[in-house]
Amino acid sequence: MELIRISALLDNYIWLLCDEDKRCVIIDPAESQPVIDILAANQLIPVAIFLTHHHHDHVGGVPGLLIKHPELPVYGPEETRRKGATQIVHEHETIEIAHFSFRVMELPGHTLGHIAFYQAPHLFCGDTLFSGGCGRLFEGTAEQMFSSLGKISSLPDDTLICCAHEYTAANMAFAKAVLPDNQTIHNYYQKIIERRENRQATVPTTLQTEKKINVFLNCHNIDLQKNIGIKPNSISLSSVFQQLRAYKDQF
Ligand SMILES: [Zn+2]
């Protein structure tokens, strides 16, 4: 199976997962043209479009792709029905298509209907988990997002986090501010800065790495709690998450 990452708009990534027969699914097409170009250049046969949530920078390419490939099924949550989804999917449902078998995970927080598509080891998680960060709470509560991140954390450590944005450098600058004495975070920040200076992508990343460097997966960390002004273990972890997310919004 081959994973292809396509840059789109300012900092979006569109993902393609291809099987050995060159059939592929297209995840969160922000735009159509860069996808059409890659399909042609690699002689790939698209078999489906997957949408994680309804935001424009995840669905904007659907009409253009359907002009070229009108037969393509579009899978997504209810909130994407008006954005072109033809197959509405829910928690635990399995999408069997070509050689793929994707499991749907409902991950509310960034939007209320946000979902992810999981085909081990690939997790297409849209704007829920980013490398070093997580999505903003536009519709859901902190508790919902905290629980969604917990669901992702329960996947195997070798899970490849295929998120929809290149936000890692800014996220690691925030992580460094929250845990200034953490050497692992410091080293990862340096590595990311170097990669970005060389115009290299920083994703996909693994869940194992994220557990070490992503502050939003480390709300239990006592130093983190102290550094954002919380008396250690005095409030629930979802409340720690809420304060951390609010702090990042101001950062
Ligand atoms: Zn979004």
TrEMBL record:
| Species, as recorded | Xenorhabdus koppenhoeferi
Q: Name one Pfam family in it.
A: HAGH_C
Q: This protein is called what?
A: Hydroxyacylglutathione hydrolase
Q: What does this protein do?
A: Thiolesterase that catalyzes the hydrolysis of S-D-lactoyl-glutathione to form glutathione and D-lactic acid.
Co-factor(s): Zn(2+)
Extract the InterPro entries matched here: Clx_II_MBL, Glyoxalase_II_hydrolase, HAGH_C, Hydroxyacylglutathione_Hdrlase, Metallo-B-lactamas, RibonucZ/Hydroxyglut_hydro
Instruction: Mention one GO molecular function.
Output: hydroxyacylglutathione hydrolase activity
Q: Which reaction does it catalyse?
A: an S-(2-hydroxyacyl)glutathione + H2O = a 2-hydroxy carboxylate + glutathione + H(+)
Q: Which domain of life is it from?
A: Bacteria
Q: What is its EC number?
A: 3.1.2.6
User: What is the protein's quaternary organization?
Assistant: Monomer.
Query: Residues that bind Zn(2+) 1, according to the entry?
Result: H53, H55, H110, D127
According to the record, how does the cofactor bind?
Binds 2 Zn(2+) ions per subunit.
Q: In which pathway does it act?
A: Secondary metabolite metabolism; methylglyoxal degradation; (R)-lactate from methylglyoxal: step 2/2
Q: Which family does it belong to?
A: Belongs to the metallo-beta-lactamase superfamily. Glyoxalase II family.
Keyword Cell membrane part of the UniProt annotation: no
Keywords for the protein's UniProt record, in alphabetical order: Hydrolase, Metal-binding, Zinc
Q: What gene name does this entry carry?
A: gloB
Q: Domain Metallo-beta-lactamase: where?
A: 11-165
Residues annotated as binding Zn(2+) 2 are: D57, H58, D127, H165
Q: Which GO terms describe its biological process?
A: methylglyoxal catabolic process to D-lactate via S-lactoyl-glutathione
